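thoughts on my protein:
***
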Amino acid sequence: MTSATPAITLAYEVVDVFTETAFAGNPLAVVLDADALSTDQLQAVAREFNLSETAFPLKPPDGATYGLRIFTPLTELPFAGHPSVGAAWVLHQRGRIGAGPNVQACGAGLLPVEVTSSGATLTGGASSFGEVLDAAAVASSVGLPAEAVLVPPRFAGCGIDFAYLVVDAAAVAAAVPQPAAILALGGTGVSVVAWDGSVARCRVFPGGVGVPEDPATGSAALGLGVFLAASGLLSDGEHDYTVEQGHEMGRPSTLRCTVSVVSGRAFIATVSGGVIPIARGEIRAPSPVRPAKSDLGRPL
């Protein structure tokens, strides 16, 4: 008889991102040394954690400090904010990257990440925004009437796009996602926003990724600056704003953002937040642990 091949395990950490308090913010699993796993295996690990996202730091391509692949329970994302902030902090805590400036390679390109002992600041990718959307369609996708809309909605983003719907604070609290309608809009989901000129109270409803509502969404916080500039709600110059999210889910989150606006368009946006360690351990890698031929040379 031959003995069974021992299971291969991978170290992981679970952290809460965009918070200074444990069991708030957005939980994230960071799984280390998973370079040998295929896409299907990475997806299986993310499905096992069943958090909004699981991050896999990888060996860096040229020009980067490290690579990162990001998975929801159902699919891979080219870019996301809280996995980028949380993974960078974990890598620094483990002595794998230094404090200060680093460069993350992901599906949105090479993105600067500034790491500190308590969190990180992520610079978003190239900004983009679309034409004005049908207000009634966007409002109904989150269970709100068209008359609740205060600013014409549109898609905007810094790596992935969300539809932004500006309403009052009562409508933010009353929003109820309609998954099929959100998916039909396209993009990554809908961000429902109450904006007072410096602070945004937000709820984010992703579409088609297995996450009905997200307690802290760095990518949507970055895109909000792009949307505000495109909608004429921010003048040219440098702006600071804060996103408060997750309160309706019992996971209050704070995302601190900056955006640079030139000729009515956002060019540089950043999002910062704290990271709190929650758990660490080892997870069994799905078998077999070898790269599938289709994944060889796969760009980040």
